[in-house]
Amino acid sequence: MPLRRGSQGTPVVNVPPPSAAYLRTFRQLLAAPEFTDRFDEIILAQARRHNLDPRLLKAIIAAESEFETNARSPKGARGLMQMMPATAQEMGLSKDDLYDPRANIKAGAAYLHILHRTAWKRFDLDKPRYTETPEWVMQRIIASYNAGPRAMGHTSWRPETRSYVRKVMLFYYSDVTKFRRPSMELAELPALPPGPAAALLP
Predict the structure, then answer these.
(1) Which of 7, 136, 167, 174 is the most buried (most CB within 10 A)?
(2) What structural domains does the chain harbor?
(3) Which one, of 167, 17, 5, 11, lies nearest residue 82 by Cα?
(4) How far is residue 137's CA from residue 165's CA, in Å, rounded to a whole number?
(5) Is 185 an annotated catalytic residue?
(6) What are the beta bridge partners of residue 72?
């Protein structure tokens, strides 16, 4: 995929192998598919609606809330994708609906679509095939989801944001982001790309 002239095309942060704590979290989540996979159909539907990588959508949910619908951060972010009320309202979602899984994922996917579109324009990428986002662009999008759209234009992120990008990428490359429900149309999903955590779990 063509990159803007002068762009390195390399990942913004190095994604290390998962620590023992991450592996424990992966195993705990993988041991409860009835909990982690119950939103797969919603995730897939919204990913397809916005031409997003469904693995990225599920990885953000895993990193933000570990699939807890009632999650709330000290700053006021709510629900599966930890949407801030103001951002959710911009996506057409009432703050009263932030704990509804379908509404929360719908708003989060719409916001990710906007961030992808912004990245494509900023970095002068070819056609908006968001399911084939280069990793260096994906990391900027993840950083923007965490720290706001201004994070798209630089890489001098706060340690919290850099850690968040690594966290999402580790989930992305793990089996936690697989779609295992029998009703899922697995043939239509993009294959898991090679990565630091891809081969560490059965």
Answers:
(1) 174
(2) 20-180 (1.10.530.10)
(3) 167
(4) 12
(5) no
(6) 78
**pTM summary value:** 0.85
Choice among 41, 64, 66, 160 that is catalytic: 64
Of 28, 26, 25, 32, the closest CA to residue 201 belongs to 26
Token code pair at residue 30: 């993988």
Amino acid in the structure at residue 4: R
Per-residue pLDDT of the chain (202 residues; tens, 9 = 90+): 333 433 556 678 988 899 999 999 999 999 999 999 999 999 999 999 999 999 999 999 999 999 999 999 988 899 999 998 898 888 888 878 889 999 999 999 999 999 999 999 998 887 767 888 899 999 999 999 999 999 998 889 999 999 999 999 999 999 999 987 655 554 455 544 444 433 333 2
Q: Which residues pair with 83 in a beta bridge?
A: 78
Distance between CA atoms of 61 and 74, rounded to whole angstroms? Answer: 17
